[in-house]
Write a structure and sequence with these properties.
Strand 2 and strand 3 form a beta hairpin. Helix 5 runs antiparallel to helix 8, helix 12 runs antiparallel to helix 13 and helix 13 packs parallel to helix 17. The strands form 5 sheets. The protein has a 6-stranded antiparallel sheet with strand order 2-3-4-5-7-6. A two-stranded antiparallel sheet has the order 1-10. A two-stranded antiparallel ribbon has the order 8-12. It is globular and about 65 Å long. The chain has 2 domains: 245 residues, Phosphorylase Kinase, domain 1 (2-Layer Sandwich); 192 residues, Transferase(Phosphotransferase) domain 1 (Transferase(Phosphotransferase), domain 1, Orthogonal Bundle), CATH 1.10.510. It contains 17 helices and 14 strands. The longest helix is centred in the middle third of the chain and has 22 residues. The chain is α+β, with helices and mostly antiparallel strands. The chain starts with a strand and ends with a strand. InterPro entries: Kinase-like_dom_sf (IPR011009), Prot_kinase_dom (IPR000719), Protein_kinase_ATP_BS (IPR017441), Ser/Thr_kinase_AS (IPR008271), SRPK (IPR051334). This is non-specific serine/threonine protein kinase. Belongs to the protein kinase superfamily.
Amino acid sequence: MFLKRTIFTTLTSTFRTHHLFHFPSRIFSQISHLHMSVKSHSSHATSSVNYGFPEEDLRQEGNDNPGYFPARLGQTLEGGRFCIVRKLGWGQYASVWLAKDKKEDRFAALKILTCESTRALQESGPKQRSDELRMLQKIASAQPNHRGFKHNLILYDSFEFRGPHGVHLCLVTEVLGYGVDYIRKGNENGDLRLSMALTKRLTKQLLCSLDYLHDVCGIVHTDIKHDNILFRPSDVFAVVAHELTAKPSISYDCGTEVSPPVVPVVSQALPLSTEESVATDQLQAVLADVGHSHWKDRHFQELVQPSALRAPEVILGYSWSTSADIWNLGCLVTEWLIGFWLFEFSPNGDKWDAEEDHLARMTEALGAKFDPNFISKCEHRTKFFNADGSFKNFTGHEEPTWPLEKLLDRFASVDLGKENVDAAARFFASVLAVKSRGTTQCSRAASRPVACRLVIISEVSTHDWDSSLMYQVMAMLNVKSLLAATTVQKDPFTNKPVIL
């Protein structure tokens, strides 16, 4: 499969971070001389949420001002070390910029946090809501030779500086290109599904990433979503040189002859290659943004994860850990195959709320009820369940969620194949385990042997079973023999060898 490369010319609501290689400074000086001029760009419709600005809120004053840094193309930071050459994107807590690192002779991504977010990171005790910098430092240094290391964002440096609104923390990271969300939305006819080949590759790489986060770094990501799964360009310098030539960095046309105090810059994410297409087997996924992540032994809050991907233990107030990430990933993989959310939930008037509806949809899709023993240990059990384990308010749907097997059979990727539908169902039965939430069986789904020793397998040339490799791997999550210290095991469904 090949992914058609399309240049980003529209706005992006998520931030991007990216990769770096050594290159001659003289080449960069030629690029900067030719393309650092700021060109105008017709403004898109503005948003009242951002006080009239086309992207992030760049007001110079205001009591509720988050304090975005109004960076300019060509601006230098950290004593001239970094020269900003492009805006890559922005999000709720920061904007991200492509810069030339003159000290290291490479390109880097500068994630400049708002003043508000910078202050939040400096909090301690109960008021602390994030530990992003320390987590990135841990990820960058814990075990670089680990197979999952390359599937996590790499921090190079950090520094603080003062802007017009106050102090900003700047995280200097590798440079990444577009992500999964961009690929999904670039499909023809609005089809949001991913191919089997890409789904397998992404899942294996993300499991590697999670293994590194969970077992080496002691981090639970809690925010695994399309926007946070990005790809590493094959040659950053070549991609940047090509893009600055073909699509020079631009700012918005402010529609006035008077020079405004702040000129918004257009977000322009980077492609992955200078070629027109990128082969699926060349894609290297990176799980980014630990701004909402938690330490395994220290949570900054208990209500975590995007609502549609939220694990039942989080909703129910059970002590969650790494298995919540596995659930989160399982929901995403389902979405990649069928093209829509697995759990489409909503409140039913004054009868039951959205969270209870979400839990009910889980039982319908997965064909299992929550274990009463698990429910008894949940803080919010009385909000959703009766003493006998039945739902407190939910009575039934006019249109129940289809069983997962039926959803896969009806909507899954066209290249899935009937044999893989059955294997996929086993995969999701293990990852999205409702009945075993809160048990050692569920905890084993996030264990090191699963995410690393088994998923990182030597690729086998036998085509007839390699195509469903990812599902075979995940279907073995609950097999006790998985934990044995052997080098070869058999798949329980095909009886064929899996090389560890």
